[in-house]
Structure formats: structure tokens, C-alpha cells
Amino acid sequence: MRRREFTVGLLLAAAAQSVRAQQRAKLHRIAIVEASSVASIDDPGSRLWQPFWKELRRLGDVEGQNLAVERYSVEGGPRSDIDLAREVVNRNPEVIVAVTDHNARAVHAANGTTPIVWIGGDPIEAEFAASLARPGGKITGVDVYARNEIWGKLLQILKEAVPSASKVAFLAMAGTLGSQLQVLQEAGQRLQTSLILMQIEDSTPSEYQRVFADIARERPAAIIVHARGELLRSRQLIVELVEKSRLPAIYPWREYVEAGGLMAYASDLSELGRRMADDLHEILNGANPGDIPIYLPTKYELVINLNAAKAIDLTLPPTLLATADEVIE
Fold first, then answer.
1. What is the pTM of this model?
2. Which of 117, 118, 166, 249 counts the highest number of beta carbons within 10 A?
3. How confident is the model over 107-144, as pLDDT tens digits?
């Protein structure tokens, strides 16, 4: 009888210890500030977020169990980006996940002590990091463009599609383009192609129509579209205006092709989503973001829409089609 009582006592003690351990398990609080340019955070079809959540679950970070997630969008209401950033940091999350340089800069300015996992452009140029290997501050994450090297590749692919192109329009939002424009100009010199910068002052239909009228007067042979979120949000209008101009165009996001555009060359967002989750997991477990190297994409995808090519009577070289990761017919 005593042995039985002793055994039951051990079982009860072990159960109580397990309950106490579960109670002691820390509930991590994070905030995600998205750009709302493509798919939302919870879209199961998102090539960025679906791998992000899957990787977090694999690592043991599960929303509703040991992870509390607050979601924010810069387009969620009339508040300014600064006000939104202040609201986010005032909630005191352990880590903030920020999509785009703009959002990362806003939340960092609101409170420079909260760790940030970011995805965006060149972190050195944006002054987020001292170096790729050792950022040194409170921001780490993923560089979508591999420090702007992608821009020269975009022009190279466009030149393969239209070998006779001697003049190419670069559609971008007004403002500082940094080294991106320089990279394109240097690639243009190598490919004997001049570049015309066509800047959108405000992301409105009338402004896009004005700029495309200017493009028509310049008579370029093709168009490259910049990666800014404002442009991406207006991708359907841009694709329609490009088709009306009957010019071949290449884009930095696959979503343009899904909207009917001709070609896109972009980093694989699923790879980047998984890497963001890895960085977040490390920080939640005590790592210093300044010690986590900035991740550069290793996989890019070329997507070609043959329907768009037919619409402007463009015959693409078989060699280019053979290198595409996906051809939409």
C-alpha cells in the first residue's frame, strides 16, 4: 500500500511540475508592420508570409501558444506613418517585424532600442547596418535586392528580350534612388543602352497617365519598373498603361506578371520569409540583432507571360524562354 501511495505521489508531483513549467513558459509578444502592397500577413497563398509562419511553427514559435502577434498596416487608417510607429513601439513588443525600409525607419525612429527584423533594400545605404556580416545595431533581416545587383540583371534580361533596344525608360517614384540608378546606368553603358529616368511625383491615376505620355514622347524601346511599394500597389494600372504603349517591360515583382505584365525577375520570397522567421526566433531566444548577419537572397525567379508578349506582337528569343523558371501561356 505504501509503495502504491509513493508511486501516486511521484506521478502527482511530476504532473504538478509539468503544469508549473508550462505556466513559466514565456509568452513572446511581437508586432508586424506590413506594407499592404501584395498579400496580407495571414494570406495562406502569400509567398512571403506562408513560409514565414510555417518556419516559426517548425521552430516551436506558435501563435496562441507561446507567441502573441499584433498586426499593423501603414494603410490601415488615416493615421500618419509616424503616429502608427509610435503606437507600435508604445505597445512594447519584444521584436518588431517591419516590411520595407520606410516602415523599419519609422519604428526605429520612434524607439531605437526595440529589436527589428526587417525586409527591404540595401541596409548599408539605408544606414540600418554597419556591415552585412555584423549589422551592429538593433536591425537585422533580409536584403531583397542583394545590394542592388538585381537592377543590372533586369536590364540585361530586357536587352536579351529586345536586342535592338538602345533606349530604356526607368519608371520610379520621385526621390532619392541611391545606387540603384547608378547600377542601372553602369549596366546600360556595358549594354550600349541609354537610360531615361521617368519619375512619378504622386501615385495617382492622373500622374501615371502624365508620365506615360512623357514616356511616349521620349520613344524608348522598353521599360523597367522600380520596386517601390507605391508602384506595386498600382500594378494593374501600370501594366495596362504599358500594354497601351505597346512597349516590352520588365518588373521586379512577380505580382506584375500575375496582373498581366510581360516579365519579372525577382528574389524567391519563400526563401526570404523563412529567413525572417529564423532571425525572429534567434532574437526571441536572446540573440542580439546586431550580431545576426544580414541575409542576401540566393534564389531568383524569371517569370515570362507569353500572352503579354503576343498582345504587343513581341517574339521572345527561345534562349530566353529556356532560362525562365516559369512561362505563362
1. 0.83
2. 118
3. 999 988 999 999 998 898 889 999 999 999 999 999 99
Q: How far is Cα 29 from Cα 92, in angstroms, rounded to an integer?
A: 8
Q: Strand runs (DSSP E) across 182-248, as ranges?
A: 194-200, 222-225
Sheet containing 116-120: give its strands across.
67-73, 28-34, 95-99, 116-120, 139-143
Partners of 250 in the β-ladder:
224, 263
Cell of 266: 525577382
Burial class of residue 9 in the structure, from the number of CB atoms within 10 Å of its CB (0-12 exposed, 13-18 middle, 19+ buried): exposed
Domain coordinates in residue numbering, the chain: 22-145+269-298, 149-267+301-328
Q: Which three cell numbers stand for residue 72?
A: 499593423
The pLDDT tens digits for 85-105 are 999 999 999 999 999 888 899
Q: Which fold has domain 149-267+301-328?
A: Rossmann fold (3.40.50)
| Strand pairing category for 222-225 and 194-200 | unpaired
Q: How many CB atoms lie within 10 A of CB 179?
A: 15
